[in-house]
From TrEMBL:
Protein name: Unannotated protein
Cross-referenced InterPro entries: RmlC-like_jellyroll (IPR014710), RmlC_Cupin_sf (IPR011051)
Length: 168
């Protein structure tokens, strides 16, 4: 218990580049994330997706909600626009997702510690090939908590490369 509310403004939370894709025409698209609150019991975050940014088929360890704030994300044949609420229970998988032409901003909350796990990698590989995209390795984010960091060695949901060259 904290003894009262913790109040944060999104402008005061650092941003991390989580994923970056290089497309055949040379342009890139990234997913940017701000971790508003993190604990072993929950994870609250904000994402900004560049137009055309992609996310693999995956899930999280905890019930998970997303609320689309601006723009749109496509999941298969479904386009989720501003105001769309997406509910995923622990163990549900989703994606791959693709940001619309205007990009996307969303708010997410995961009950539980929130570690990601991969789903059907072939589905994502097929989307990457169709879009002429490759994932660009990035340094590990600097603010991940220890209970999440300890799981990435066995978890392939993200494609990060640490400064010493270790891939996650």
């Amino acid at each position: 218990m904290q003894g009262g509310p913790r109040i944060k403004h999104l402008d005061d939370v650092p941003v991390e580049e989580m994923l970056r894709y290089q497309f055949a025409d040379g342009h890139t698209a990234s997913i940017w994330e701000k971790w508003i609150e993190m604990s072993p019991r929950y994870f609250a975050f904000w994402n900004k997706w560049d137009p055309g940014a992609l996310s693999n088929h995956h899930g999280h360890t905890g019930d998970h909600i997303n609320l689309i704030l601006k723009g749109s994300i496509r999941c298969g044949d479904i386009v989720c626009t501003a105001g769309t609420h997406i509910m995923l229970e622990w163990g549900d998988t989703f994606g791959p997702w693709e940001a619309g032409p205007e990009g996307c901003e969303l708010y997410g909350f995961i009950a539980g510690e929130g570690s990601p796990f991969t789903g059907d990698q072939q589905v994502f590989d097929d989307l990457l090939a169709a879009r002429g995209a490759t994932m660009v390795p990035l340094p590990m984010p600097t603010r991940l908590p220890p209970w999440v960091m300890s799981k990435f060695g066995a978890n392939k949901a993200v494609n990060w490369t640490t400064t010493d060259g270790q891939k996650y």
